[in-house]
Amino acid sequence: MTAPTAIATARSVSVSFGDRTALDDVTVEVPAGQVVALVGGDGAGKSTLLRAFVGEVGPDSGSISAPTKHEIGFLSAGPGSWAALTVRQNLDLVGGIYGLTGDELVDRREGAIDRAGLRVAADRLASALSGGMRRKLGAAMAMLHRPRLLVLDEPSTGVDPVSRIDLWRMISEAAADGAAVVMSTTYLDEAERAGNLVVLDGGRILTQGSYDEVRTAFTGVITAADVPVRPEWSWRRGRRRHEYWAQGSPDTDAQTVTPDLEDIVIALSMSRRHEEPAS
Ligand SMILES: Nc1ncnc2c1ncn2[C@@H]1O[C@H](COP(=O)(O)OP(=O)(O)OP(=O)(O)O)[C@@H](O)[C@H]1O
């Protein structure tokens, strides 16, 4: 099978703000028709990478290749819509910016309203929407002109589980129509469903690939116990604590668990922090 065409690529990208490194030698490809999910804790570099893809942040070294601005749809970490306009007016405004008019604009707008589950709120001001509805409107606005590259900064943060289903359907449909999608998320269950994952921490890529590839590449052993042997290598999962043994061979009789994405992200982030104490 040939590799799908990359619509956007970051090659060895590094970005600093003053003495703070936001991205350190990051290489990521966003293929047509696929969803790449960026995960990682606060300050991992997710927003900076997304802003680099849309041209809002220039790399200090390395390069970005991406379609022209006209072919990109971007939902930033901000509100993503105009508070003083209604749902319909917001969609009309972005449609107009991208040259959509007449019946085509009406069809796309009404289709977007349905897909986003915003029919009941179509004539409501954006400022009067719930946080989740507002996020869905922002995503609908970013994809209205059917961009080749769709860049979404935490589209589902603050969105209730039912609305997250609407949002995820909108994103999957955009990818099925051929868009290359790169998005950040704090919900790891959501990230597991994306075709590709990029796990960032402190501006570095800890691991990337499909969920299967990430699981296969993960080394070491994770155990579960009420009381961990080394608290600094452990974290709470449910009522127990999981503990990471990077070299394998746990020094405990505790039960071994099959790691999920949450375990993998935490274990890899912990390893990095133990290697490189924060300055
Ligand atoms: N405009 C800026 N000026 C100074 N520092 C910045 C700026 N933007 C980002 N940073 C710093 O760069 C690092 C990466 O931030 P970034 O916003 O990309 O992370 P993130 O993974 O999106 O996390 P969060 O979800 O908390 O925004 C952080 O240390 C942040 O403080």
TrEMBL record:
<dbReference type="Pfam" id="PF00005">
    <property type="entry name" value="ABC_tran"/>
</dbReference>
<protein>
    <submittedName>
        <fullName>ABC transporter ATP-binding protein</fullName>
    </submittedName>
</protein>
<dbReference type="InterPro" id="IPR003439">
    <property type="entry name" value="ABC_transporter-like_ATP-bd"/>
</dbReference>
<dbReference type="InterPro" id="IPR003593">
    <property type="entry name" value="AAA+_ATPase"/>
</dbReference>
<feature type="domain" description="ABC transporter">
    <location>
        <begin position="8"/>
        <end position="227"/>
    </location>
</feature>
<keyword id="KW-0547">Nucleotide-binding</keyword>
<keyword id="KW-0067">ATP-binding</keyword>
<dbReference type="InterPro" id="IPR027417">
    <property type="entry name" value="P-loop_NTPase"/>
</dbReference>
<dbReference type="GO" id="GO:0005524">
    <property type="term" value="F:ATP binding"/>
</dbReference>
